[in-house]
Amino acid sequence: MPNYSIFLVNSEFANHYYYRSDILYRFLRKFDVYPVDSIHYKQSRYVTSEIPVREVMDYLARCHTGENAFEKKGNSLRIEGQSDVAELLIDGTCIYGSSSSFSGAEKLLFQYFRRFNSRFFIIEYDSDNYGWISPIGKRHKDLNTRLLYSLL
Fold first, then answer.
1. I need a labelling partner for 73 at 20 to 30 A (CA). Which of 19, 22, 61, 119 fits?
2. Sign of CA dihedral 39, 15, 20, 111
């Protein structure tokens, strides 16, 4: 079962580090081990945005009405498709998840997260995969024109 964390990155950092995702990965992969009073923890809180827990849970519930088994308990969810299962724990700073397969996570979760906000950054710990939930083409509305020209 792949385990992953999903972070909502501030727009300033999402724009600046879109093509430097390896730097963001190295910084965020140790998110859980930072002591609360450390400078790394404070920096990670500055780089990431607060995740609107209720909005995300309500949005996912609306997306899965009728087609999949959807169980909501506190800040955790369990979604069962025909052959896939995904479980999430939504914290205010990070979404922790596991699924039966990466394709199952894509089918049950990631396609909906992509529509909710394009600034989600995903880290899969089992295989050290990481990346943005949405390609730059889908995020062009969020980018500043000057930034776009400076990258060319």
1. 119
2. positive
